[in-house]
């Protein structure tokens, strides 16, 4: 049974704006799912719906088998949420704040657990500091500590590394990897494709309130094992010569460039043959260039190709 199950969920805000247009998503226990999508795609709306903060207009969401609307308390107990907006009391002290978050779920005091969480997030030295004395990155880590205080099984991180420097971003990735080792299921949203590439087991792409793709990262990567060879010609041609009809070619740049797409993992790329066939067809080359397609290309294509 998936730990999170989102079934035909739509969300229309009071303004009449439809932010989710029939979302289906199943998340397995222990996985890291990265949701990629442009601003306004509906990522925060989806997460808020799963966490029971926003009420879906239709459809159903289960967390650990509990309906997030009719069994809110049972579902919410399993969830840790690090919201996109920093919402911390400026004068609240770090350590007691984390202990307090735990208490909100009706759990007994557990200083050892709170210490472990603070240490894991490198906040132990700052346990007596007040929020306003912390840097932005530390504040973000305090939010994670608060979200982990009640030992949730599913952790939602909404843009955990937005506006965070490279070093801290990598620290955050380590924290996520460590939580995964402990068996926590993690769903994070991000604009950073390299972040999804670095830490996710599965990647979902969402745009305009719809999930466009959810796929194992490894499979996506395999699809990305394609390269483009651009052949720049000395003289422009009006059309691809008939002799080259057997190749997967595209003519662009006013007939000056031929683009050949090939699979880097197949036995032969076909480049040698293509080049001699080009010559046989009477074309002379000015330059050659190859480019690896990336997750970014797939993402951009997906998001722009929609009607
Ligand atoms: N309370 C609200 N009332 C009306 N419209 C809203 C509300 N909250 C969000 N929206 C709209 O719903 C759409 C999706 O917003 P959402 O915050 O879910 O996007 P997002 O993918 O998280 O974007 P970002 O990457 O900028 O965080 C946007 O067009 C937004 O303006
Ligand atoms: Mg958002």
UniProtKB/TrEMBL annotation:
Pfam families: ABC_tran. Gene3D superfamilies: P-loop containing nucleotide triphosphate hydrolases (3.40.50.300). Keywords: ATP-binding, Nucleotide-binding, Transport. The keyword Nucleotide-binding applies. SUPFAM superfamilies: P-loop containing nucleoside triphosphate hydrolases (SSF52540). Residues 4-233 form the ABC transporter domain. One of its GO terms (molecular function) is ATP binding. It comes from the Bacteria. PANTHER family: ABC TRANSPORTER ATP-BINDING PROTEIN. This is ABC transporter ATP-binding protein.
């Amino acid at each position: 049974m998936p730990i999170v199950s989102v079934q035909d969920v739509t969300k229309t805000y009071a303004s009449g704006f439809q932010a989710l247009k029939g979302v289906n998503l199943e998340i397995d226990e222990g996985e890291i799912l990265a949701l990629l999508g442009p601003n306004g795609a509906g990522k925060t709306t989806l997460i808020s719906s799963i966490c029971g903060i926003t009420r879906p207009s239709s459809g159903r969401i289960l967390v650990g088998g509990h309906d997030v609307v009719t069994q809110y308390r049972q579902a919410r107990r399993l969830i840790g949420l690090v919201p996109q907006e920093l919402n911390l009391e400026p004068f609240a002290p770090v350590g007691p704040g984390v202990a307090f978050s735990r208490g909100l779920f009706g759990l007994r005091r557990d200083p050892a657990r709170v210490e472990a969480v603070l240490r894991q997030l490198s906040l132990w030295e700052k346990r007596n500091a007040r929020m306003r004395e912390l840097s932005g990155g530390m504040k973000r880590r305090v939010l994670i500590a608060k979200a982990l205080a009640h030992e949730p099984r599913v952790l939602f991180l909404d843009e955990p590394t937005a506006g965070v420097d490279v070093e801290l971003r990598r620290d955050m990735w380590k924290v996520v990897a460590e939580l995964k080792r402990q068996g926590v299921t993690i769903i994070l949203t991000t604009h950073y494709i390299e972040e999804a590439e670095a830490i996710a087991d599965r990647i979902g792409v969402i745009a305009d309130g719809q999930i466009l793709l959810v796929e194992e990262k490894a499979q996506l990567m395999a699809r990305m094992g394609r390269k483009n060879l651009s052949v720049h010609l000395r003289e422009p041609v009006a059309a691809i010569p008939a002799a080259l009809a057997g190749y997967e070619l595209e003519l662009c740049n006013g007939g000056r460039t031929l683009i050949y797409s090939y699979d880097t993992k197949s036995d032969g790329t076909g480049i040698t043959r293509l080049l001699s066939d080009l010559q046989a067809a009477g074309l002379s080359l000015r330059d050659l260039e190859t480019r690896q397609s990336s997750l970014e290309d797939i993402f951009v294509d997906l998001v722009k190709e929609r009607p």
